[in-house]
Amino acid sequence: MTVSTAGPVTALPTGGPAAPARPITAASGTLRSRGTLLLLEAAVAFAAALVLPVLARGFRLNPLDRIAQVSGLAAIQLRFALVGLLFIGAVGLAMRLRRGRHFDLAARIAAAAIAGLASGFVAAGAVVALHGTPWPMFGLNGDSGRIVEWAQAVANGRPSGSPVYPPAPLYTLGHYAEWFRGGNTAYAFKDLQILGAAAFGPLVYLCWRMLLSPVRALAFGVAPAFALIDAYKPYSQTVLVLLVPVLVAMVVSLRRSGTDGWRPLLLKGAGFGALLGLLFLTYSGWFLWSAAGVLFAALLYFPWRTGRLKGAAFLGATLGAFLVVAGRYLAVMLTEGQTTKDYNFRFDNFTDPAYYLMWRTDMPGKVGDWPPPGEYGGVGFFALVTFLCLGAAIWLGSRRPMVVTIAAMFISAWVMRMYIASHMYETQTVQLYTRTNNQLLYCGLLLCALVVHLVSQRMAAARPTAGADGTSRTGFPGREGAVIGALCALLLLLGTVSSSMADRYMPAKDGTYRILPWVSHTITERDGSCPKFAPGGTCSKDGDQSWLSYIR
């Protein structure tokens, strides 16, 4: 009943026993090597991520009209479901034809496609929300305006307005604007908001493929990440959901380094260092919240008995490559970052610091009792499930680096959150501690998913030999049915979640982040005209400034 499919042995890098994966046979043609198959998955995932945004460009609607927004979301959902069902249908067909020789390949492709389609849904929602305006969400106001201004500066060889702001997004936006938008970083930022949201699913899927087989990567890695997908500044949340599997994979490789050959050991270490350096240049905050937990996991799984020298060499190669890629920015953070203070107290700074399940942002909108009253001592059922899954995951996978590393990152973020919040009154600074909400939520969801993952593995390992009719003697169906069932469930789950996350950014003046694209429709274009759907046909240089009254 395991939902693993073709590729590496299920969850092999976690250090525990795994169910054997079906081998790729000659019927799979020339797609034999794992590297080639991963490239195929990447190509399918990124191509699928572009399907819905491209189709959404052809919609004819007024994005400021609520009925038009609902129709747009339904139109995206319809296309998402139809395309996804085509891939799942291909998996069912592959199960029937030629004794299922192509089943694993079809399931692999379907999992990658669904990951891409899901984030493409959110990107398509951004296309609808910004239809008729060339400006990015929020135009030149707030963070959007600062990013546009700083990217313009670095593209012209000048320093940005903040030395501690991650440089990778600024240089990416600046160069993209030069190449494709004639140097207009504002209009280019709209493109990258859409493309960044679209790339979220494929990137998360490919990172989790370092640890899990295709369907498990989709179910236990990608699905939890969609609670955080963001179309406004997609890079910050993307770094978080990529950082977790990358750090887990690094700890797994460290554990095995004592028995690895020198050349692959050093290459893997350098690869992890370079990848972590790139993520650090893109958004560094998650490294601070995670550092203590990852250090604990690294010390726990260091090959103290099997090869201390090789373990040290692996860490040395990782650190060396990281410093080559991000050493200069790290030095800036260690110096300038110590003097940079955040004095902006927002809505979440006035709520119970132990509540992390939802982050209401700087514009929470209409809020009643907050946090919502819970059933058990004020704690809601979702929080109870998260903490129970934390304990169950450690119980079931206490010897697996994946479980221990994620649990340690959860606890590390929790401790850092309370430490900074406890000094808030004394220092009168915030230091962005509320951003730990996202890491706590993601790691908590991952731990819940890992409980299902570990239980399904144990059930698969204990499954008796199937009878002549293909049904196991316990009465459960075989692996193929589990795969198809999981894909159907994940298609509907991700479609629903993606629709909700896309709806968060449909233009409206309601005191939430929906006002960001609303403002985009009220800003005068570079040629002096108003955007096509500007309310009342009026616009101004800065756009609707009523958002200032919503910040708290």
Provide structural commentary.
It is built from 17 helices and no strands. 61% of the residues lie in helices and 0% in strands. The protein has 552 residues and is an all-alpha fold. The protein has helices at 34-56, 66-96, 103-129, 142-155, 167-180, 185-208, 214-225, 234-256, 262-282, 285-301, 308-339, 381-397, 401-422, 424-427, 436-461, 479-503, 515-520. The termini are far apart. The relative contact order is 0.14.
Name its key features.
mainly alpha; 552 residues; single chain; disordered N terminus
Summarize the structure.
It contains 17 helices and no strands. With 552 residues, the protein is mainly α.
Secondary structure blueprint with pairings:
Elements: H1 34-56, H2 66-96, H3 103-129, H4 142-155, H5 167-180, H6 185-208, H7 214-225, H8 234-256, H9 262-282, H10 285-301, H11 308-339, H12 381-397, H13 401-422, H14 424-427, H15 436-461, H16 479-503, H17 515-520
Spans where pLDDT lies below 50 across 5 or more residues: 1-31
List the total number of helices: 17
In terms of DSSP E residues, the strand content is under 5%
The whole-angstrom Rg is 24 Å
User: Structural class from helices and strands?
Assistant: mainly alpha
Q: How many DSSP E strands?
A: 0
- Determine the oligomeric state from the structure: single chain
Report, as a whole number of angstroms, the end-to-end distance. Answer: 50 Å
**SSE order, as H and E?**
HHHHHHHHHHHHHHHHH
What is the global morphology?
globular
On the 0-100 scale, what is the average pLDDT? Answer: 89
As a percent range, the share of helical residues equals: 55-70%
